[in-house]
# Entry
Amino acid sequence: MVKINNYLEKIMKKTRERNKGEQEFHQAVREVLETLEPVLEKKPEYRKAGIVERLIEPERQIVFRVPWMDDQGQTRINRGFRVEFNSALGPYKGGLRFHPSVYSGIIKFLGFEQTFKNALTGRPLGGGKGGSDFNPKGKSREEVMRFCQSFMTELYRHIGEKTDIPAGDIGVGGREIGFLFGQYKRITNRFEAGVLTGKGIDWGGSLVRTEATGYGLIYIVEEMLQDNDNSLSGKEIVISGSGNVAIYAAEKALELGARVTAMSDSDGFVHDPEGINLAAIKEIKEEKRNRISEYTDMHPRASYHPESSEIWTIDCDIALPCATQNELDEKSAQSLVENGVLAIGEGANMPSTPEAIELFVNHDIHFAPAKAANAGGVATSALEMTQNGMWDSWSFERVDEKLQRIMKDIYKLISATARKYNMEGNLPAGANIASFEKVADAMLDQGVV
Ligand code: NDP
Ligand code: 2IT
# Structure
């Protein structure tokens, strides 16, 4: 663990005491605090104004009951969350996660990260996150719809296009956003398109939003490689996950001439050394909502391994963790380094453990941290909101061009910030400091609120 000064250590201790048992939140806070010392020394006014202390305390936390009826007529109860973390730069913005592991510690870590990520996009967005411990796996479409309607029946009073704008995350995709939007419209009698992002293309959604996080990840990884006289062309890539982020990262990587040799879901991974057939993955995961193990039925040359985390033992040039938090630990990082990995790009939120990140940074592996690397999703959400505000819809090329520009600008900003603070190449530090400065300066401007 990196050492931090007494002031930050005290803040860390208080964070643990006030948010008991919320390990993921402690981890996300610690990771940021470990890089802030130089910027706090340079600008003592941040400490005087209690910026760090205020940043760690969400502005508002909403927890609610979500009752719904299953197909057998049995009443079920889940817990809903929305954490409105920080509104210094704009209205709260961030996704909704439906997964049985969701509790306040997960939503708070995601909301905290979101605040910094959104700052990096350069768009006027605050940070927030929400979700539920609802498990969509094995549920019928009707059950998911009833759940979404019940969830929105409480959430609607807390959100709005100028207040808080949710979107998707794990377990929440276009289908769920449709059900949520329908219920919001029904309750409020307003076609308020800008209240949710990730909508259908014919009713206020933006082209490229579906692809945006995965494409954005590849754009920033390519930028990072080119800055180091290299490129994705001809590289072998391992991608964990096979959801929204993983699939579109694979799509763009293939377009740029790379080969994807392995992908996974929460049960296991498939290894196809000649290159994964992405159309088959899309069919299994997007259309049929089945298990990735099915891939080997269609492609007998590929092998299936029923242990997701073992995916990192496969020899590759580039590793893209795109599934979930803490999916890449020190042992996995060690095998990647031993196999000569060149670069890591974090598509998921906080996928690498602190020990894994330390190992990558110490071995000078090019490492694009989540806050920057997966910001393409929320950046394109901002483009969706812009189109909604203008009552307009843009072409695929126009949105894609803007997304590429944003990802390049993020790379430039975080690498320049790392250099400015004498940590050349340390992109996690660059991302933390650059985003912290933006949010902190806005908070200073707005007084003690
Ligand atoms: P999806 O629900 O579309 O896909 C999630 C994928 O990760 C699935 O393949 C799933 O497997 C796997 N997965 C989920 N939980 C676990 C787990 N506990 N262990 C192992 N594998 C798991 O989600 P997204 O692709 O949207 O999100 C993936 C990551 O990217 C998350 O960290 C999310 O926060 C982050 N992200 C998403 C953005 C977006 O716009 N959607 C934007 C920025 C970041 P299975 O099918 O078995 O459930
Ligand atoms: O983690 C994320 O950035 C997202 N899930 C997307 C958030 C958004 O509002 O588009």
User: Anything to note?
Assistant: The CA atoms of residues 18 and 40 lie 23 Å apart. The first strand starts at residue 60 and ends at 69.
